[in-house]
Each structure stands twice: as structure tokens, then as C-alpha cells.
Amino acid sequence: MTRSPASRPSARTFEQRLADGVMVGAEGYVFELERRGYVKAGPYVPEVILDAPDALRQLHREFLRAGADVMVALTYYAHREKLRDVGRGDDLEPMNRQAVRIANEIAAEGGALVAGNICNTWCYDPANPAESGAIVRDQYREQLGWAVEEGVDFVISETNDFLGEALVGLEVCQELGLSAMVTLASVRPDTTYDGYDYVEACRRLADAGAAVVGLNCSRGPATMLPLLERIRDSVDVPVAAQPVPYRTDDATPAFESLTGADGGRLFPVRLESAGHTRFEMAEFAREAQAIGIDYVGICCGGSPHLVRAMAEAMGRETPASRYSPALDLHPVLGEGHNDVMGDWSATAS
Ligand SMILES: [Zn+2]
């Protein structure tokens, strides 16, 4: 079956949904599925789409129950060159199609929008933008062509290290008549890898027609918020923020460079000790909403309990809120507890 962009899966468009008020995003699929044993750290190719589709369905469902307004098709890194690198080049089309089908299937359980997904390809070379951009363009056309046929409401183009590559992705979305939310990674302190101040890069993306601009991945709340404020003040389009839930700071603005007590690198598979709690991510969501961010989500490291806390902080009651903490009912921590075990306040003395 072939669908045109006119047959988008949802009754409402992305723009209409944005106009209703702040949207809740949820990502970090690859990291979460790696932790669950379905994706290999290192290549980070989403082989789970074909190898264990029920594991992917379940994570989509958990994000949906946690309040996510969008099911993002797990086509991150499912582009031609990456799949060839891991010996799965023949699976390119089935993997992309199935990812979008699964996103649609679970979105329909809760009225979420469906986003196609493209990302940094590692093929773009700012020293040779025409030739490398053509290679990137072909990969995006291929992925998004299948996404359109399977049905998506809009596209999330994310983790863009280069403004040039982000603009290629935006052009391909426009060729296909798709709205695009385009977000930049921000590994470097001030500029994209092709030398544009992040604020300027967002302004150029907005001028080029992106429906939403902003930042995803790389930065935790503490180092993403100051940049978001500047972006918010500089563009007229909606702004997206999908940080990582890790404790980045001025000395280490991006989580890729975080180190542990032993001085060793924490990224990507020993980040737990730098993780934010659900309460801290809820505080981020409140602050992002307060400065006028329109799409508040989470990236690598995201998991359903963090998304639920963020959604609730922004005033939502989610399907999973039925099981949100009620510590007053805890046998020791609650009021009127049974005194047999004391109050757990004892410390070594
Ligand atoms: Zn990420």
C-alpha cells in the first residue's frame, strides 16, 4: 500500500497540536533498549526493530503511558551506511518500514502523533558540502520515502552536529511535504561542528522553514537551559528541548565528556552515577515550560519514569499516573507507620 503525505495517520496536524499547548516528547530508545539487551552499544543500530519487535512495541507503549504525545519511529541510525557497517544492508528497507508501522500501531492505542526520524549520518563533510550533502540527501530521501508510505505526521530530524546537514534534512522533508522539527546536538561549547553559533543555526533553520527548532541530546538540563533561553528569544517558531538526564555542568557541558571518580569516561555505558532523578527532570520540565519551550522531552538516558514525572510536572495526568508514588502508604515512610522497624532515620554514630 502506498500512502501520500495527505493520508497522515492522525486527525490533527503537528502544527495544530503545538497550538494546543506544550507537547511532551520521549526518546532515548536506543539507550534504553541497549540497557534491556536488544541493541548493541557501540554501533547503536536499532536491530531490535526486526529482531525483537515486541520489545520495541513495549517501550513505545511505556512512553505512551508515561504521557508522550508523539511516538517516534525508531529509525535513528537505520540509514544505509550504518546498516552496511554492521552487515545488515539488506535489512535497510524492512527495518525502516517496520519501525514506522510499529510507531503507528502503538500511537493508535493512545492518540499520539507519529514522527518519522532522521539523524546525523556521519557522512556529511563541511569541507565538501556539495558532494557529501548529496550522499546524505539520498539516504534521507530513501528513509523518509518509506516513512511517508507507511504514514507519519511529521519528521524529527535530530542530533544534528552540522547546520549544513540539518538543512539537507529539512529540504528533503519539504520535498515530501512534511513538517519538520529540527534539533541540534550541542557537543561543543558554543558552535555546531560547521562553526555556527547554536542560536544562529536555529535561526537559520527557522528561516528555512523548520516548524520547530531546538536542541536534543548531548546536554543535561543545567547546560541546555541557558542556550534554550537564548534560542527562545531569537526565533518566532516553536522551540524543542530534549536533554539527556545527566549532570552536565559548565566545565563539561556535554555528557559525552563526563568522567567518573576514577577519571574515566562515563559515556556511553557507565553513566548511571551522573544520572538525574525523576524530581530533577520534573524540575527541568517546569523550567522549560516556564521559559516558553513548546516541545519538552528527553533524549539518551530517558526512561518511562522520567517522562511521567516530567509530564506530571507540566500538569498532565498520564495513564501511568495511576501508579505514581504514594509514599504516604509506605509501611515505614508513611504517616502512622508501624513502629516495629523504627523510622529508618538512624545513621552510624
Ligand atoms: Zn540522545
TrEMBL record:
SUPFAM superfamilies listed in its UniProt record: Homocysteine S-methyltransferase (SSF82282)
InterPro entries from the UniProt entry: BHMT, BHMT-like, HCY_dom, HCY_dom_sf
Gene3D superfamilies: Homocysteine-binding-like domain
Residues involved in Zn(2+) binding: C217, C299, C300
GO molecular-function term, one example from the UniProt record: betaine-homocysteine S-methyltransferase activity
PROSITE patterns xrefs: HCY (PS50970)
Cofactor: Zn(2+)
Entry keyword annotation includes Methyltransferase: yes
Pathway listed: Amino-acid biosynthesis; L-methionine biosynthesis via de novo pathway; L-methionine from L-homocysteine (BhmT route): step 1/1
UniProt entry tagged with the keyword Cell division: no
Cofactor-binding details, from the entry: Binds 1 zinc ion per subunit.
Keywords: Metal-binding, Methyltransferase, Transferase, Zinc
Pfam families tied to this protein: S-methyl_trans
GO biological process, one term: methionine biosynthetic process
Domain Hcy-binding: 11-314
Lineage top rank: taxon: Bacteria
Name the UniProt record assigns to this protein: Betaine-homocysteine S-methyltransferase
Protein source organism: Jatrophihabitans endophyticus
